[in-house]
Amino acid sequence: MKAWPRPAVPTLETRGGRPRVHDTATGALVESGPVEGSARLYVCGITPYDATHLGHANTYLAFDLLQRAWLDAGLDVTYTQNVTDVDDPLLERATQTGVEWEDLADEQVELFRTDMVALNILPPAHYVGAVESIDLVVALIERLKSTGLIYQVDDADHPDWYFATSQAPGFLTESHLDVEAALRIFGERGGDPERPGKRDPLDCLVWLLERPGEPSWPSTLGQGRPGWHIECTAIALEYLGENFDVQAGGSDLIFPHHEMCAAEGTAATGEPFARAYVHAGMVGYEGEKMSKSKGNLVLVSQLRKAGEDPMAIRLALLAHHYRDDWEWTDADLAAARDRLARWRVVLGAATPPAQPMIDAVRAALANDLDAPAALAAVDAWVASASGHEGAAENAASYARAVDALLGVRL
After folding, report:
1. Can you spell out the DSSP letters for 168-188?
2. Local confidence pLDDT in tens for the 410 residues of the chain
3. What residue ranges of the chain are covered by domains with CATH 3.40.50.620?
C-alpha cells in the first residue's frame, strides 16, 4: 500500500538526545530508541471509514513528535503502520452506505493520506493493509500452532481459529487489568467473550472462516480472513522484527488490542514483542469521547475545507500533552491561529540567537514529548524577539528548528 510523500525535515547544527517516554507496561518513563542505528516504531493505523477525525490526528501527531526527536538525536527511524482495510466495522459501514467495501476503504485511505500531508506528518516506511498481509497472517498462525495456543472453536458451522490468549506467557502484564475488567473491556471493544466453544472467554479470533456475502481468501486454515490483533502482530514482526522499540496508538488500544498483539508476538518468538508501549490520550467533543460509534467527530478534512490553516490545526493539537484526555473546542483553534500568527511575525526579522530556545524545546520533548512546554519555550523566544537588535539568520534558525522538532511550517 502506498503511503504519503515524505516532507523534508531540516537538519539542525547541533544534536538533541533520545526522548524518555511513558511506558504503559511499567508505568515509568523509559529512554526510547537505540543508542545508535535505527529506532523501530509501530503505530496502529486506521480502519478506513470516518477518516481523519481529530482523535486520529492527535495520535499520529504524538508519534510524529517521537520520530522527529529520534531524527534530531541522529537516529534513523523505521516506522511501520497498518491499515485495517477489511474488518466488521468497515463492512457494516459499506452496507449502510451502499458502497462497495473496497471502494470505501480506498476512498478513506486516500483522504487520510491527504490529511497527513496537510498536517506535515512523517509517513511510515512500511504502510501495509490487512488484505495485502494475509499471507503473513496465515504464516504466523501456522507458526503459532507449534505452541499449542492455536485451536479451532467447537462450532460445527463456523469452526474459526482462535489464539489461547489466557494461556500465553505474560498476558495482562502490559495493561495490568484483572480478569473481570479485561472481560468487560474485551466485550466493549470488539471481542467475543460470550462465544460458546472457546477454551476461555478472553481468547481472541485469529482467522474467521468464510461467511456468506463477506470477503474471504483461500489459505491453509480454510477460506476466510484475518482477525484484528493478529494482523498487527504479523505486520510488526515482518517489518520490524522482535523486541522493537515502541508499539504505539491511542489509549483505547491498550486492551485488548496491544495486549493481544504482545501475547501473540511473545508466544511466536520467545522474546518481548516491544520494548515500550506508548499511548496517546482520547480527544472528546461535546462532553463525550470523539468516536465513530458516537458520531461526534470533528474531521481534519472539514476544517481544511472551511479554510483553516493545517499548521493552526497542528498547533491546536500540540497545545495538549499527548497522554492527556481532553475536549476539543472552538477556542483551541482560535488560540492556535493567534499563536501561529505571532510565530510568523518574526520571520525575516532581526532576532536574538535561537539556540537557547532550541535547547528548551529539545528538553521539553525529551521529557515525555511535552509539547505544551515546547510551545511555551517558542512563545517566550518570540516575545523576546520583539524590538530586539539581532541578526536575521537567527530567525531562519528558529524557523528550521520549529519545523524540524515540532513539524510546524512557518
Report:
1. STTTTTTT---HHHHHHHHHH
2. 999 999 999 999 999 999 999 999 999 999 999 999 999 999 999 999 998 999 999 999 999 999 999 999 999 999 999 999 999 999 999 999 999 999 999 999 999 999 999 999 999 999 999 999 999 999 999 999 999 999 999 999 999 999 999 999 999 999 999 999 999 999 999 999 999 999 999 999 999 999 999 999 999 999 999 999 999 999 999 999 999 999 999 999 999 999 999 999 999 999 999 999 999 999 999 887 776 667 779 999 999 999 999 999 999 999 999 999 999 999 999 999 999 999 999 998 889 999 999 999 999 999 999 999 999 999 999 999 877 777 778 999 999 999 999 999 99
3. 20-285
For the chain, how many residues are written? 410
| DSSP string computed for 12-64 | PSS---PPEEEETTTTEEEE-S-SSSEEEEEE----SSSTTBHHHHHHHHHHH
Q: Please give the C-alpha separations between residue 82 and each of 56, 76, 322, 327, in angstroms, as whole numbers.
A: 14, 20, 21, 27
Burial 243-262 (b: 16+ CB within 10 A, else e): ebbbbbbbbbbbbbbbbbbb
Amino acid at 261: C
Residue 276 phi/psi, 5-degree rounding, is: -150, 150
Q: How far apart are CA 238 and CA 234, in angstroms?
A: 6
Bridge pairing between strands 76-83 and 274-280? unpaired
Q: How far apart are CA 54 and CA 281, in angstroms?
A: 12
Residues contacting 394, CB < 8 A, separation 6+: 350, 351, 352, 353, 354
Which CATH homologous superfamily contains domain 20-285? HUPs (3.40.50.620)
Which contacts qualify for 92-95: CB closer than 8 Å, 24 or more apart? 93/49, 93/50
What percentage of the chain's residues is helix, strand, coil (to nearest 5)? 45, 15, 40
Q: What are the backbone angles phi and psi of residue 149, rounded to the nearest 5°?
A: -100, 0
CATH 1.20.120.640 domain extents, the chain: 329-406
CATH of domain 329-406: 1.20.120.640
